[in-house]
Amino acid sequence: MTAEAGSVAAGSTVAVDRERSVTAPAGFRAAGVAAGIKVSGAADLALVVNDGPRDDAAGVFTTNKVKAAPVLWSQQVIKQRRLKAVVLNSGGANACTGPEGFQDTHTTAEKVAEVLGAGAVDIAVCSTGLIGERLPMDRVLSGVDTAAAALAGGQRAGLDAATAVLTTDSRPKQAWAAHPTGWSVGGFVKGAGMLAPNLATMLCVLTTDAVIDGDQLDAALRAATTVTFDRLDVDGGTSTNDTVLVLSSGASGVTPSREEFTALLTAVSGDLVRQLQGDAEGVTKEIAITVRGAATEADAVEVGRIVAEDNLVKTALFGSDPNWGRIAMAIGRAKAKLDAELLSIQINGALLFDRGTRAQDRSAADLSGRDIDIVIDLRVGDAEATILTTDLSHAYVEENSAYSS
Amino acid sequence: MTAEAGSVAAGSTVAVDRERSVTAPAGFRAAGVAAGIKVSGAADLALVVNDGPRDDAAGVFTTNKVKAAPVLWSQQVIKQRRLKAVVLNSGGANACTGPEGFQDTHTTAEKVAEVLGAGAVDIAVCSTGLIGERLPMDRVLSGVDTAAAALAGGQRAGLDAATAVLTTDSRPKQAWAAHPTGWSVGGFVKGAGMLAPNLATMLCVLTTDAVIDGDQLDAALRAATTVTFDRLDVDGGTSTNDTVLVLSSGASGVTPSREEFTALLTAVSGDLVRQLQGDAEGVTKEIAITVRGAATEADAVEVGRIVAEDNLVKTALFGSDPNWGRIAMAIGRAKAKLDAELLSIQINGALLFDRGTRAQDRSAADLSGRDIDIVIDLRVGDAEATILTTDLSHAYVEENSAYSS
């Protein structure tokens, strides 16, 4: 369970620095510039370059069957487990754009490869923004030149890159953690699932200077995302563009054990996920749903998700109402093994429903604060999982309905 | 596909009278009274009695694993395919109330049996209201006496019963349709899935004077509900108390064919479902999602439901935004067989997304009205289904969060 250290459940046991990100590990440069893709003129193109000596890489992508062009491209190039650079743009998702959209992604990768003296297959592409619109390629390509010229190491360059990918996010989200043996993991993230309506997508770039080969990097990334990114569920959405990439330069010369590396990668990922939850659109409550006593971890996750996605639960929590009846109703919809007679529900420490019948009066649960902890005990096994979510507020409806395309 | 006549997809092809309900078919009496279960003093207890000569019956119940006491009771007694009467109360769901709650339901059935000179196993019980509270049994039992004394045939008695079961519904919902060969089907309904927050539950009582045995009645009810009640999805909720019962008196002396009976039962059920959609909490848009070209009907239903339950789609439609990108994203989350390159999306007649790429400009779709028709073509088969839903409005959030327990 080393991977659980720093999972959204445990909370990070590692000191995480939110002022640093992808350029903190040795061997990386980054840039973030305004290419004119966004009509607002805000920064909208980021570049993260791995200067080596190694170029191991891995990635995980959206499970949505409607995948954006950059996802289709990056899924192909990552198969070789090597990347020289990642180019990211906001201001357009390049999703549902057909063969022309895929060609735009390919052209972007070729341009980055050209300026970096690499091959197009060494370049991953990420896009976020409106679905169904072609990108203004002239601006994307000139933006790549501008970004290449601005490439630098250090804290500022990392922050520029983390800022250029933002859409409806209210702030950049960075995290970095170092291992006592002399290597570190850093990264930035934007969005949160389909939290940001048309401006879809969760994009995350992680870097490390540890010496680790691509297959181990891939295994560590899957272990880390399973207990972090996969445990945040704001509105059940999984976008057409969701991407998490990790690049390793090996510049520290240190080879950590698989457990050490997975633990630190998980700690950094878990911190980034908590930042996504805290910056969710319209969020007024940060909710952690822990499901205990499940027959399997998959059952625990399913029950946590069905509660996290239930609009009646989410609206009740927005109203600070410890409405355990709605939680029991939502749990009952799960396919997971459960028995209503064994079920218990605790909210912020108050046991309101115990083994199929009411326990303490709901007034015992104080939901006036921003943080809400729900603990569900199924009592049919010993598997456990925690899902993070947010409430369903007027602001959520406003931000997602007032948006005009 | 006779059963499709009058399904939510086709719309009723039969003349339906919304002024009549359970007492319109011969052989039935009903009553609705104020028993004092609701603190408001509004009507809260209804009785529907079958005077025969026959007493065939069938029922379908919530699939939720957390079932209210009256559901557990009624599921048992319906196994004999015979019912003398149904007693329904609003003002309390009697769900999550443990063994004591089940005893309360049993006691209620025994009381009704006593006043009607029947056995407790001939009495179905339905409850709706707050989850987790015991019922005030003294008031329930005295209410049964009051209701029994008020039992009558005719339009007024049916309306009284249809009114006594209401919770957050804004109006009673009745439907009746006659067959030219001299028999009819009538019914009333309240709620809509988990539409009514704590005041959970969809309850429906249908009656007929056709001559039809319990097994055929059961088959017809399952065929009818599959294409009507099962095709309304407002917020994905299925309550702890959902119940649909059908009682047959055989008083017309007419034995319809299975097809004739299923068609008329489906027409009446479909009309009641459209009334549920129109009275949904916070509804500002009545949305029909038709999925065509699916590999199987189950796939069509899954895709329709995943779109109907997507908060980003529901908030966009509240904002009258023909946001096909969110619909494509939602479809992509389905397990159903589909290919993004074949997918098309039409909204109110405008083809906005065709075979994987954008078609007409979204401005071609006018969503200013209350009715929105979404047609999704998967082009992987020839199965089809229509799901009815509503939008996610500020009023929905308000009604579901401001509610104070």
UniProtKB/TrEMBL annotation, chains A, B:
**SUPFAM superfamilies per the record?**
DmpA/ArgJ-like
The reaction(s) catalysed by this protein are: L-glutamate + acetyl-CoA = N-acetyl-L-glutamate + CoA + H(+); N(2)-acetyl-L-ornithine + L-glutamate = N-acetyl-L-glutamate + L-ornithine
The EC designation for this entry is: 2.3.1.35, 2.3.1.1
Pathway assignment reads:
Amino-acid biosynthesis; L-arginine biosynthesis; N(2)-acetyl-L-ornithine from L-glutamate: step 1/4; Amino-acid biosynthesis; L-arginine biosynthesis; L-ornithine and N-acetyl-L-glutamate from L-glutamate and N(2)-acetyl-L-ornithine (cyclic): step 1/1
Which residues make up the annotated site Cleavage?
200-201
Q: Where is this site: Involved in the stabilization of negative charge on the oxyanion by the formation of the oxyanion hole?
A: 128-129
Alphabetically, the GO molecular function entries are: L-glutamate N-acetyltransferase activity; L-glutamate N-acetyltransferase activity, acting on acetyl-L-ornithine as donor
> Which UniProt keywords are given for this protein, alphabetically ordered?
Acyltransferase, Amino-acid biosynthesis, Arginine biosynthesis, Autocatalytic cleavage, Cytoplasm, Multifunctional enzyme, Transferase
Tell where it localizes: Cytoplasm
Q: Where does substrate bind?
A: 167, 190, 201, 281, 400, 405
Please state what class of enzyme this protein is.
Answer: transferase
Q: What does this protein do?
A: Catalyzes two activities which are involved in the cyclic version of arginine biosynthesis: the synthesis of N-acetylglutamate from glutamate and acetyl-CoA as the acetyl donor, and of ornithine by transacetylation between N(2)-acetylornithine and glutamate.
Similarity remark: Belongs to the ArgJ family.
User: Sorted alphabetically, which HAMAP family does this protein's record hold?
Assistant: ArgJ
Q: What is this protein called?
A: Arginine biosynthesis bifunctional protein ArgJ
Instruction: Name the gene.
Output: argJ
